[in-house]
Amino acid sequence: MKSSARNQLAGTVTHIEQSNGSCLVTLASAGGVEIHAQISSFSLKRLKLSVGSPVIAMIKAASVVLATDLAPMTLSAENCLHGTVKRVEQGSVNNVVTLDINNEINLCATITLYSSETLALEPDRPATAVFNANQVMLGVLI
């Protein structure tokens, strides 16, 4: 499978919650990192997903928001992954920031230069990747 999404995480479905034509699918990725994806019931059937199914979660880097100090905030986003900045690739308008999550996963976020400066993002700085479940696309190998 090829995709334009920078973030492609292999995992296994651990839980499926269905309600009113929508499904919240939880998967365990490398190192036990949990990712939540919201898909339609139609997509669940089309992908033939069930607990134990192998799946690829894809998240566009532009869908990932970074934060450096969330405490004591509670967010509506289903996915909040704590990590450490691994590198910052400088661009002319945006930077691509790579976080190391749990020494298992690299997750990229595309953020503005202003945001990168405001958050003082540099290697080894703790940061949190935040994204909604409806921004996660799921794929299976056929």
From TrEMBL:
Keyword Secreted: no
Any single GO BP term: molybdate ion transport
Domain annotation Mop: ranges: 2-68, 74-140
Annotated keywords: Molybdenum
Protein name in the entry: TOBE domain protein
Naturally occurring in which organism (per UniProt): Neisseria mucosa (strain ATCC 25996 / DSM 4631 / NCTC 10774 / M26)
